[in-house]
Amino acid sequence: MEGPLTGVKVLEVANWLAAPSGCALLADFGADVVKVEPPGGDALRGYLYNAAGLQPAVNYPFELCNRGKRGITLDLARPAARNVIYDLVKQADIFVTNLLPRRRERYGVTYEELLPHRPDLIYVSVTGYGSTGPDRDRPGYDYAAFWARSGIMGLLGEPDDPPPPQRPAMGDHTTSLLMAGSVAMALLHRGRTGHGQMVDLSLQNTGLWVLAADVQAALMGADPVKVPRTAVPNPLWNHYRTQDGRWIMLVMLVSDMYWPNLCRAINLPDLEKDPRFDSFLNRYQNREALIALLDGVFAQRPLAEWHSPLDENGIIWAPAQTIREAVEDPQTIARQPFATVTHPSAGEIQLVDTPVKFSDGGVGVRGPAPELGQHTEEVLLELGYTWDDIGKAREDGLL
Question: Domains along the chain?
């Protein structure tokens, strides 16, 4: 199956989630991605996320982030590994790493050191805080750099409650989308100019972009703060609890347009002309009273009984679904967002597919993640290494 990136070669020297997830998307787009792991493997191979007691047959975070790649092992701590990396770089269009700058220097894989081996190389760095600045060498998972350091964590939740926790890999997967798009732009630039370049992404910068509306307000002198749901400026842009403990999210930013419809949907048509609530300004000035009123109304029926009146009156809303409900949602299924692949030990499994659809096809999961070192010989033979070379490298502990 050919894709937009068929013929593009990617060399990945990265672990955990953000950079590998981005490379998984590049593989979905058709690129030949070779993942370099240390002899003990990517640390994510040893991590099994236990969700509600589930004992998965496969390490599904690793499968998700590494599907469709070829994998080799190489001990970068050994000086001889540099020559192998340089040989791989000569054949690569893109080099992707999440090694901190000091480790890149230690292993001889900085942008400046790789450039002589491939002058038009696109070098992609994905780290917590970027390749410049005082924290360039600070470790940072997305929980720290994306969620906490960017300001997202500090702005979510009720003012007097502890901030809510991030769900696994939210910042990593968001950054992976940005990485895939940036690589496409760098390839387009190289095709036009003949020049490669360094693409530098950070989880912290991604967090600032995700929170950009609040960040922009801060740049203009405002001080965004937490607002309790009982006092949000627009009661029609708020969430309400139903009789059965579920939540409904109303999203009517231009509230004057939808106010009559909402009054009909909640079976209180006379409320439309109530002088406390008959304009945006009046609803704002009396927001706590209106929110309390709507709290009482939505609490009178279970979630299932709110679907029809809200939909029939054109209300912009959504239920706060569980993950199981989201997976089984008819709209989800209609979009075919999951791919079935054959895993070497678990048989057929489903993976979350590329979150974009191309009318010309050729984009999607191409296979399972590689087993540790599965393609070492295959890749080295392609580079011109002999079986004797590979055997000696193994004896020397390089592979």
Answer: 9-212+335-395 (3.40.50.10540), 229-322 (3.30.1540.10)
